[in-house]
Amino acid sequence: MASGIPKNVANPSLYKKAKAKAKAKFDVYPSAYANGWMVQEYKRMGGKYKGATGGEVTLDPKKSDLNNDGKLSGYERKRGTAIAKSMAKKMNMGGTVMVQGRGCGAIMPSKQKKTRVPRG
After folding, report:
1. What is the 3 state secondary structure string of 8-54?
2. Is the pTM of this model over 0.85?
3. If we measure between CA atoms, which residue out of 2, 11, 3 comes closest to residue 43?
4. Are 18 and 47 in contact (CB under 8 A)?
5. Residue 59: left if φ>0, alpha if ψ -120 to 50, beta else—which one?
6. Contact yes or no for 89/117 (Cβ under 8 A)
7. Is the pLDDT of residue 1 over 50?
8. How many angstroms separate the Cα of 61 from the Cα of each of 51, 52, 67, 86?
9. For 79-110, how does the pLDDT look when each residue is reduced to its tens digit (9 = 90+)?
């Protein structure tokens, strides 16, 4: 990153143009607003980033083998893959976590703190 261009940029020349536009538009550069605008401009101009595409799900053969014969049938493989994808999707959506209250005594369930935890 000696030239100021991240390694995950697919089109460095387009990135330089977007960066020049951001420097011309904003008085203070670099700043959070300027960098955010520059990334959006780079994407509007058709720029993309290299890296992980995501969506890869690993199949657990032991959990997928329904009849415990040591072999996965087509049905077992499809079912296991579908379950793994569903679980991965649920994990990325986030959820609600109960936070343990501090202090003495019990806390009524309606008064317990619930914290939303974003995942992914």
Report:
1. CECCHHHHHHHHHHHHHHCCCCCCHHHHHHHHHHHHHCCCCECCCCC
2. no
3. 11
4. yes
5. beta
6. no
7. no
8. 28, 24, 12, 16
9. 888 887 777 766 666 555 555 555 566 767 67
